[in-house]
Design brief:
The structure is a single chain. The longest helix has 17 residues. The protein has 13 helices and 11 strands. Helix 1 packs across helix 13 and helix 10 runs parallel beside helix 11. The strands form 3 sheets. Strands 5-4-1-9-10-11 form a 6-stranded parallel β-sheet, with helices on both faces. A 3-stranded antiparallel β-sheet has the order 7-6-8, with helices on one face. Strands 2-3 form a two-stranded antiparallel ribbon. Strand 6 and strand 7 form a beta hairpin. The mean pLDDT is 96. By secondary structure, it is an alpha/beta fold. Bound molecules: nicotinamide-adenine-dinucleotide. The site of nicotinamide-adenine-dinucleotide has 27 residues, from helix 2 and strand 10.
Length: 269
């Protein structure tokens, strides 16, 4: 741990953004299941679906209300969860390094925002589970899922009166969760594609935490930053492909994200 903290401090001396790249593991200690655990699976009829099958436009087209039920259940879990020490540490870092720090998160749970990470320094590249938008993309806007949409327990169906609330306020067509699905592409207006690539190109330090490295933009961010000479650090319970890159750079911390991010933030402030 001490060698990694020293590498983080040394990276601060160079100019350029300090980026934290977070994944589901950062919220695991808040009680939100990651996609890899068995809690990530979802049963519809007689079949167990893997998140990578359900979090797709194809699944939404085939069975929209089953997919909405999965998202409304996950929204309920996120609403009940509280930010942990790792979220708070990154929020402190944003406030202490207002001109340098950027948080790029794959998490859709809103816990970084609720911990106080400022919107101007936070880039949720996979969307936000509390928001919906037009399923037909009639407009770029997204809206809070109405408060009248209740929390759903695992296995609950979306009742007809709730379905009637999940509509685009502009065209009246069906709304969809504002999340990036596995068969969709990143863009700037909704998912900050150009912004995070620009930040990565000049980065001094990238602290990667709680991600299994299976999505493409995070890879791109880490590779752009590495090519520009950034120091890479990986925090995870397990070895993963980002850890292999970080091992030859700033180093790895194999332990819970909350403790590790608290220590890293303290070293940088
Ligand atoms: P993932 O589920 O694929 O991987 C989670 C990673 O976190 C694993 O490498 C695991 O070893 C690590 N981990 C678990 N607990 C940890 C802890 N306490 N401390 C440190 N590391 C820990 O998640 P991903 O890489 O973020 O990618 C999956 C996709 O799932 C993303 O697109 C994301 O949007 C979505 N997702 C989001 C949430 C959320 O918002 N909380 C939850 C599940 C999935």
């Amino acid at each position: 741990m001490e060698a990694v903290l020293a590498a983080c401090r040394a990276a601060l001396v160079r100019p350029g953004p300090v980026i934290a790249l977070t994944g589901a593991g950062v919220s695991a200690e808040s009680g939100i299941p990651t996609f890899r655990g068995k809690e990530g699976y979802w049963t519809i009829g007689a079949r167990d679906y893997h998140p990578q099958e359900l979090a797709t436009q194809a699944a939404f087209r085939a069975m929209p209300w089953e997919v909405w039920a999965w998202y409304l259940y996950r929204r309920s879990v996120c609403r009940r969860a509280q930010p942990n020490a790792g979220h708070h540490a990154l929020a402190r870092l944003a406030l202490e390094l207002p001109d340098r720090f950027a948080l790029v998160t794959q998490n859709v749970d809103g816990l970084h925002r609720r911990a106080g990470s400022p919107d101007a320094q936070t880039f949720p590249i996979h969307g936000d589970i509390s928001l919906m938008r037009c399923a037909a993309d009639c407009v770029l806007d997204r809206w809070l899922i109405p408060d009248a949409v209740p929390d759903l327990a695992k296995g609950d169906a979306v009742a007809a009166p709730v379905q009637a609330l999940l509509v685009c306020p502009r065209c009246g067509g069906m709304a969809r969760p504002h999340v990036l699905w596995f068969d969709e592409s990143y863009d700037e207006p909704r998912f900050h594609l150009d912004t995070v690539r620009r930040l990565a190109r000049g980065a001094a330090l990238v602290v990667i935490a709680g991600t299994s490295a299976q999505t493409t933009l995070p890879w791109h961010v880490v590779q752009l930053a590495a090519s520009a000479g950034a120091t890479l650090v990986d925090v995870n319970l397990e070895d993963n492909p980002f850890g292999d890159l970080a091992a030859g750079s700033g180093g790895v911390i194999r332990g819970p994200a909350a403790d590790a991010l608290t220590a890293i933030a303290a070293a940088l402030i």
